Amino acid sequence: MKLHHRVWVVWAVGLAAYLVGVMHRTSFGVAGLDAAARFTAGPEALSGFVVLQLLVYASLQIPVGVLLDRFGARRLVVAGAFTMAAGQLMLALATDLPLAILARVLVGAGDALTFISVLSVVTAWFPARRVPLMTQLTGLIGQLGQVLSAVPLALLLHGSGWTAAFASAAGLGVAVALAALAVVRNRPPGAPAPPPAASLREVVDGLVSSWREPGTRLGLWTHMGTQFSGTVFALLWGVPYLVVGQGLSSAAASAMLALLVGVGIVAGPLFGEFTARHPLRRSWLVLAVIGTTAVMWTVVLAVPPPAPRWLLVLLVCVLALGGPASMVGFDYARTFNPGHRQGAAVGIVNVGGFFASLVVSLAVGVVLGQIGPDGGYSPDAFRGAWMVQYVIWGLALVGVLGARRRARRKLAVDGVVVPPLRELLAARRRAR
């Protein structure tokens, strides 16, 4: 097979592994109300499923980055796919809460191994100029996994039942694991071999150096501020909110999740091209997405429920921008760190959004349990619960602005001066 063709085959299989991983990750979002009935779980216990899954995912990001630099992407993608499949099979058979929670822990662990490993494949197999766009395409096409959970998995769940739905998901996971084992390779033929595995001391030094790099921290705050709202919506609380809080049917709520993915796929290449063309203006895209998301939620929460359908559609469209915008964080990690520590840097960045997601998921469940009727769901309880997001947005905005200032100072030392946007716009007006 010619190298040009092989690049796309390797990428497609890695992408398939990530896509199915996203299906595993988000499968609980469409099954939340069914899980509450199956395991007799209230809002706080239900949020515990996803919080623990995200806690495992976020806490493993830095170790996985280190493992990626040491063992390569292929082994981690295969191990992640098998681990998630085992978790879904366990969930299919679970009839009590402890076993179900353990199943979601396995899903979180396998999920942690997958995404940054697939990004490593993209970086190794594609030219540097195309990496931002291919990163966006990988992240956004991978989000079609949400459609797999929102449509076919939901149909199986409500048709054939819990066990059949999650056992089928496990079978699909095994299939992509075998495909990755057969096809994915860490680098193209003829590419330079990676340096020898680092010692423990070198690993620690690499992590410290990655964290001290202001571009890495800028990536972390970027990922945190843009990603969490849509993730919490898709992973757990979106369907219950739309059904109970806004009066939509289960089918309409699932369609909203599909819309979330579709809009993100359209926005992703546009964001990727902007990032490639204007690398010194990436932060303005990030700030715009954070601000627009916060404003959109403010409008929706200010309207007494049920909100007009068009307004909910607009909310979902805005939430869909968070995924593509969060990919900018990985671009910061790539461009501000040398190749030998990019796995660690990407792992640090990936902690941001998922740590915020687990905090908000837990906080929403706690608020619902405290102010909902009999510890349950109600439109007013959901309005109060979603307010917890503003704390994370504020923290992320402060972090982005501070890290951007330090990153620009470092660029200036290296001879790259980023002029203020107003000066750039004024210069363009004069040029006309």
From TrEMBL:
The chain crosses the membrane at residues 7-25, 45-68, 75-95, 101-125, 137-157, 163-184, 218-239, 251-272, 284-304, 310-333, 345-372, 384-403. SUPFAM superfamilies: MFS general substrate transporter. The keyword Nucleus does not apply. It is found in: Cell membrane. Its main location: membrane. CDD domains: MFS. Keywords: Cell membrane, Membrane, Transmembrane, Transmembrane helix. It comes from Pseudonocardia alaniniphila. Residues 9-408 form the Major facilitator superfamily (MFS) profile domain. It is a multi-pass membrane protein. The keyword Hydrolase does not apply. It holds the Pfam family MFS_1. This is MFS transporter.
